[in-house]
């Protein structure tokens, strides 16, 4: 399942042509960013989480996509171009997830079964 999530994140990385959301915000670019944003996230962190198989369902991945958007809106203002791009990336992820929703649902069932059997810890 996380391979599917990696593919969705990779698609979002390609979608972000200027690479605003690919890596963490640097203090030199936004000196007060970490004073304003308490829970930073970027597509690179999300990809690493998928590689480490930290996402056990689509809701977790989409929550991080939502956090990406909320952080961009909070820091830059809702009508800023960067916030607009974050909304477009989130919608792109939603569209990509819709394309693979049946496969993801099957994997989620398998993960839930393994958790219920004590074979997987969360």
Task: Write a brief caption for the model.
The protein is 66% helix and 0% strand.
Quickly give the CATH architecture.
Up-down Bundle
Low-confidence stretches: none
Tally of strands: 0
Largest sheet: none
N-to-C order of helices and strands: HHHHHH
Which percent range describes the beta-strand content? under 5%
Give an overview of the whole structure.
- The chain is mostly helical and 122 residues long.
- The protein has one domain (2-116): Up-down Bundle (Histone Acetyltransferase, Chain A), CATH 1.20.920.10.
- Helix content is 66%, strand content 0%.
- Helix 1 packs antiparallel against helix 3.
- It is elongated and about 45 Å long.
- The two termini are 15 Å apart.
- The mean pLDDT is 95.
Q: Keywords for this structure?
A:
single chain; 122 residues; mainly alpha; Histone Acetyltransferase, Chain A; 66% helix; elongated
């Amino acid at each position: 399942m996380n391979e599917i999530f990696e593919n969705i994140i990779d698609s979002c990385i390609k979608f972000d042509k200027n690479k605003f959301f690919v890596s963490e915000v640097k203090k030199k670019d936004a000196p007060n960013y970490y004073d304003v944003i308490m829970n930073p996230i970027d597509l690179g962190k999300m990809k690493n989480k998928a590689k480490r198989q930290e996402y056990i369902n689509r809701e977790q991945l989409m929550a991080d996509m939502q956090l990406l958007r909320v952080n961009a809106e909070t820091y830059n203002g809702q009508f800023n171009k960067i916030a607009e791009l974050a909304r477009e990336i989130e919608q792109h992820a939603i569209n990509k997830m819709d394309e693979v929703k049946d496969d993801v649902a099957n994997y989620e069932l398998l993960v839930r079964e393994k958790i219920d059997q004590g074979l997987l810890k969360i």
